[in-house]
Design a protein that fits this description.
- Helices cover 40% and strands 17% of the residues.
- The protein is an alpha+beta fold.
- It has two domains: 132 residues, no CATH class; 63 residues, no CATH class.
- Strands 3, 4, 5 and 6 form a four-stranded antiparallel β-sheet that branches. A two-stranded antiparallel sheet has the order 1-2.
- Helix 4 packs parallel to helix 6.
- The protein is globular and about 55 Å long.
- It starts with 6 loop residues before the first helix and ends with a helix.
- About 5% of the residues have low confidence.
């Protein structure tokens, strides 16, 4: 790593290189990175880092937004970034008159979103779950069968999955997101079996 670069630049280089795709889940129609994994990853890399949740901001229409500040520290070096997020459901719709649980869930989502400003999981916010690739080659017929099986086992609606993949049919799913799709669906299958 180039120690002549600034601490924020070195942090970006370190965190943006971490592949988050094996840890993502599908909630609603969007990929989702669980906050415990994201925070643990930050602590493994920069254990002196901290965050501060601000009080919720209430709007006249009965909705709210949450804000977090994260300070990344490494020895004497530190810098802070902040991020905000409306209190939303998992389809990104604002919630009117949110409960404390809605606010708590959104706070943890904004924590992960703010980590994206430092580089961790930033690919999720570029409407992609992998670094952007010019290769949009579709998956193979065998991979289509695998997805169909997993969708059935996970009791996942195929239409919502296709919205997430930004495709019309399973045959058009880009090969570069296949691994992420399988990992997310396998987690859903495991969760379904526990119920």
């Amino acid at each position: 790593m180039d120690n002549n670069r600034t601490f924020p630049a070195r942090t970006w280089q370190t965190l943006s290189a971490i592949d988050v795709t094996p840890h993502t889940e599908l909630r609603g129609r969007l990929p989702f990175l669980p906050w415990p994994w994201a925070w643990a990853t930050l602590m493994d890399t920069y254990p002196d880092s901290t965050f501060e949740m601000k009080p919720p901001g209430w709007l006249e229409n009965g909705t709210a937004e949450v804000t977090v500040e994260i300070t990344i520290r490494d020895g004497d070096e530190a810098f802070t970034r902040s991020m905000w997020l409306p209190v939303m459901d998992y389809n990104n719709n604002s919630i009117e008159n949110p409960t404390t649980r809605d606010i708590s869930d959104s706070r943890m989502r904004v924590l992960v979103k703010c980590l994206g400003l430092f580089g961790l999981g930033v690919q999720l916010y570029a409407k992609s779950d992998l670094p952007i690739s010019p290769d949009r080659a579709p998956i193979t017929a065998k991979q289509v069968k695998i997805l169909k099986t997993l969708l059935k086992q996970a009791k996942r609606d195929e239409g919502r999955f296709l919205e997430w993949a930004e495709c019309e049919t399973l045959e058009e799913v880009p090969a570069h997101i296949f691994g992420t799709a399988v990992a997310m669906l396998e987690k859903e299958v495991a969760a379904t079996k526990k119920q």
